[in-house]
Every structure is written in structure tokens, then in C-alpha cells.
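Entry 14. Structure prediction run on the chain below.
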Amino acid sequence: MERGVHYHEGMAEARARVLVVDDDPDQRHTLARLIAALGYITETAADGQEALEKLDTFPAHVLVTDLMMPRLDGHGLLEQLRRQGGGPPAIVLTAFGSLDKAVSVVKDLGAFWFLEKPVEISELSLLLERAASQSRLREETERLQRQLSYQGVLGELVGQSPPMQEVFSLVRQVAGRSAGVLITGESGTGKELVARAIHSLGPRRDGPFVAVNCAALPESLIESELFGHEKGAFTGALSSRAGCFELAHRGTLLLDEIGEMPVGTQAKLLRVLEDSHVRRLGGKAEIEVDVHVLAATNRDPHEAIQKGKLRLDLFYRLNVFHIALPPLRERIEDLPLLTEALLGQLNRQYDCKVTGLEPEVLEAFQQHDWPGNVRELRNVLSRAVILAGEGAIGTRHLPAELGAPGKAEQPPPGLEDAVCLRVGATVEEAERALIERTLAHTGNNKTRAAAILGIGLKTLHTKLKAYREAGAPEEDGPGAD
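Output returned:
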């Protein structure tokens, strides 16, 4: 096998690597020398198959490939790279008469750009610079993601404990590949967050991410939701509708609670996974889809197989890569980092200024079993942030089962938070008194007041408007929104 590495003392794009693929030896070597003269490190391959082999030992930043070649042509090369995880940005070279195919490659396979032969070196130089910059930006993003994950953050996932670092490692390994992934773990452990991290770290990050909860869909609608339907396919199908596979084309589809999918639908799903084509309900034509399918379940998949809830062949198809999420009780050491991340999100969501947890609260958290996992922690912190508003969260802001050891939940100090009603007060009067007292407690912050009352902000504004019209003008104070 020939070696076509060329060196140049220039520093174009910090010695970016370019792989030149062309079946014509003269054109291949001439182009490689021209690119090397621009300051790049180059390697050559005679066709797409050899290019795949060269990329294993020559991690190119940019691919410059001819379109028409024997064995594996440029189209086949890019399609194979896409299936393997994307590959470097590709500049496609096309001869006169094959322009339409070159445009198709750029559109369908995500090639960076195309150039007609004979190549203008100035145009090629500009495209090489832009493609190399894109490739290096991707490398830097991946490097920063790896660095953050070692510090306990990967996407929306948080944790420095050994079990979570193992999860992070698995996510990084599978993110660049299109293999089936099965994510297991108890409810509330963050299975969808793992799926989103895989999507955002992989080559499909710019494509759609679609999540469907198989347990939340009636059996009569799940096939329509997954595969779509044509107008008139069933009663109520008043128009055609694309299914989740079509919506997730060139992106990622998460099938949550896969064990709850009807067995008959599982057989149809398996066929789609095998041939990458869907047929809408009531439709005749098959539609090609390019989707990375991830699945998640909070059940033991082997138990589901034994009970006939999950097809064995579908399990093997999905379980190429298995990621098991640990429950929160098995990574209690992650609580400080988790609470810090969640408090930042909740402060922004509720317009609050909570600074952290009092030591007694963290102690109570560490002693709790967290049957609802991270979802339960978020709910507890949501309530506490709304009640506290600012400063540190204390045990008085927690539900009774999470109060400080040996202490019952304490009401807020002072009588200003009490609502006093006369005997015989109407429901409307009681509601108004409660709203007014809650607004006083929040400093007239309507967003927090609505959250405490459990009503929508629009509903609160409607009620306040009615009170004003009834002759009791509302006064906006500090913190009003």
C-alpha cells in the first residue's frame, strides 16, 4: 500500500491533516503536493475503501475526495463515515456532468462543500481553511466536554462519584457511534438526560432529539405516534401526520419505557431498526429514515423478557451498549454538587436568590433514602427555593419527612405569615385573603406567589384584576414583576 504523506514547513491551520482520495494517481499526487504547499500534512488513498483504512492511523481534519471511484466511491465513503459517527468535514471533487450528484452528496450526507475539476487552488485553499477550523472547533468542544465531565458535569448530568464517572465514560464512548443503546435505572435517575448527552456529544448534535414515553401512550395510538399515519387511516385521522421516526430523521429518537410497548408494535419496531424504513398507517410507500435509536426502561429487562413483555430479539438489537444509572442513595457523595447545580437552575426559573443549604439541611439530605431519586431532590428543592426566596434554605423550608433529625417542621417566624379568617367567611373571601397574604410573604413577587399557591401566573393576574375592579387597588411593591 502506497504512502502519500507530504510535509511542508508552513503552519496552515496549525499543521492540520488532510486526506486526499482519488483513483487517478497523477491527480491524487498533484493535489496532495498542492495542499502540502499550503502548509498542511497530507496523506493519499486510491479509493473510499483505502480511505477508511487510512483514517484509522491518520486522523484527518479534512477529507478531500473524488466522487467517481472504483470499489467504494465518494458517496459510499461519506455514507459509511456517517454511519460510523460522521468523520471529518469533506470537500467533494466532481467532474463536469456530475454536478447534480455532488449537490446531492452535500445535501444528503452533510459534505462540507464541493468543487468542480479542474480545481482552483484559491477556492480550495479557502475551503480547506474553513473546514479545518470547523474540525478543530469540534475537537476543542469535545476536549472541554471531557474536562467538564472529569469535574463532575457532562451535559445536564452531574456527579463526581465513581458510579457516575463510569456513566460519563460510557456516554463519551458511545456518543460518536450509531450503535443501539439501552439505558436502565430507577425512575427519576436521569435516563433522558443520558440520552440527551449522547445526542449532544455525537455527530447528530445539530439534528432533532425526539423522546417518546411508550408507557404514556394508549395502545391504539402508539403505532401512529411512532410511524405516522395518512389521512383517513382510522377514525379521527383528519390529516396526514409524520411519526417520531420521521421527526427524528438525522437525529436521535429515545424510546422511553420500552418494556411498556405492546409486543405487536415491538415486532414492527424491530423491522424499522433493521431496514431503516417506515410505512405510515394507511400508507403504501416506505419512507427511508436515518435515526439513532436509544431505549430506556426502569424495569429489569431480563425479567420483562421472561414475562413476555419485551421481545428477546428486540432486546439484543437495542442492548448493543448498556448504560445502567445508579440510584441517588448509592451516590450520596454527589449531593453537594447536585444541589448546587439544581439551585442555580431553580433560582433562574423562580426568580429567587437562594445561596445554598444550611448544614442541617445537607445532613437531612444525606440521611434520606431518596426513593424518587434526582427527580424527588429537584421537587424538594423547588418547594424550598420558593418558600425561602433568598438566603440559605433551612429545615423550616423542607417537608416534614426531611426536617432536621429529631425536629418537626417549624413554621416561619412571626404572625405575618398567618391567615386569619372570621367565622362565616365565604370561600371567595378566604381565597382572596390567602392570595394577599402570600403576596405579602413574597414581597409582591407574583411569580413566586403563584408557585406557592399552586396556580398559574395568568390566573393570579386575573384574580388581582378582579379585586382591583371590586374597589381594592393593588399596590406594587419591591419585587413585583
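The chain has three domains: 12-137, 151-326, 329-402.
Filed with the rest of this week's runs.
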